[in-house]
Amino acid sequence: MDNTKNTNKYIVLMIIAMLFWGFAWTAGKVAAEHSNAQVAAFWRYAISFISIIPVIWFMKTPLTTDRAGLMYMVIAGVLTSLFNYLFFAGLSHGDAGYGGTMVTSLAPIITYLLSILFLGTTVSMRQIGALSIGIFGALILLRVPFEGFAFLSVDSAYFLGCAVVWALVTVVSQKAAARAHLMFYTLVVFGITTFINMLFALPHRPFDFGAYDAVFWWTILFIGVIPGTFSTALYFVSAGKVGAHRTGVFMFIVPVGAILSSWVVYGETLAISTLIGCLMAFVAVMLFNMKKTVKG
Q1: How far is it, in rounded angstroms, from Cα 137 to Cα 273?
Q2: Which helix (H) or strand (E) covers residue 10, if one does?
Q3: Considering only 3-12, 67-76, 110-119, which range has the smallest mean pLDDT?
Q4: CA 134 – CA 286 distance, rounded (Å)
Q5: Please, are residues 176 and 77 in contact by the beta-carbon 8 Å criterion?
Q6: Is 287 helix (H, G, I), strand (E, B) or coil?
Q7: Which residue in 142, 164, 186, 267 has the most C-beta neighbors within 10 A?
Q8: Where are the alpha helices (DSSP H) in 1-152?
Q9: d(Cα 130, Cα 88) in Å, to the nearest integer?
Q10: Cβ(104)–Cβ(276) under 8 Å?
């Protein structure tokens, strides 16, 4: 009974973390409108890097890894800095609700394909069927049956890039997980991402605080601290209690937060094709991660 209550508590925490990650898409669009992609990308992770340090100290996270672990952290940091730029650049052109739904739905499907192709992950016939559903859902999300290759337009191409880069980050994270505590891994990745994004932000005067209005600063502070540090910590703490096989399913709460917040702030509406594609990706993740029951 106590274990059930404990698990339920972490499920609630996981849902909260996912919703805040969804809210970050709409907040990111607000920040991008009041600055530019380079400056917003830099300050998002600069704030997350600074604010995660007390969390690392409070959790007494071991700050150890080996050479291979450090290499994975550097690769993940470079990729995350690219994702970070694509995130804000995409939101400068496209809808927050569509971006949050598209990236969250496509990333796990792409991750599975990369794991099979490059990590030698073996799959069952059920998982092949799940991937087929996911790929078809991805095509619907990209509106290929209705608009052909229009998804390569500026409104969608950035989000597609986000999904591909985040899938690569996920694969690298899987390799690093056995070599470092995930919170320490996150700290180093945040630091590397901050430094790289700063280099590209410098021509845009990121330290000229008067050049950007209060809306930008309050919004970027929210993204950096709440979805950035708070939700990341909740995610890692809860994932260990809820079970790794369930975490992929929880990621599909992110579009709910993105869609709701973008509707409230921008009046964005959800296209039927986006909903269908998201649901098909959700079904694919459920089937892919479903544990085979053993008959006694």
Answers
A1: 9
A2: helix 2-33
A3: 3-12
A4: 10
A5: no
A6: helix
A7: 186
A8: 2-33, 37-58, 67-93, 96-118, 125-141, 144-147
A9: 31
A10: no
Contact 28, 96 (CB under 8 A): yes
Indicate the Cα dihedral angle 51, 52, 53, 59, nearest 10°: 130
Question: What is the C-alpha separation between 23 and 26, in angstroms, rounded?
Answer: 6
| Residue 88 near residue 197, CB atoms below 8 Å | no
What's the mean pLDDT in 59-87?
94
Residue 120 in tokens:
């030698």
Q: Which amino acid is at 157?
A: A
> What pTM was estimated for this model as a whole?
0.86
Which residues have C-beta within 8 Å of that of residue 192, sequence separation ≥ 6?
A: 73, 74, 76, 77, 78, 80, 81
What is the CB-side half-sphere exposure of residue 103 using CA atoms within 13 A? 33
Ranges 20-24, 173-177, 187-191, 217-221: which has the least confidence: 173-177
CA gap 194, 239 in Å, rounded:
25
* Euclidean distance between CA atoms 269 and 26, whole angstroms: 13
Contact 242, 250 (CB under 8 A): yes
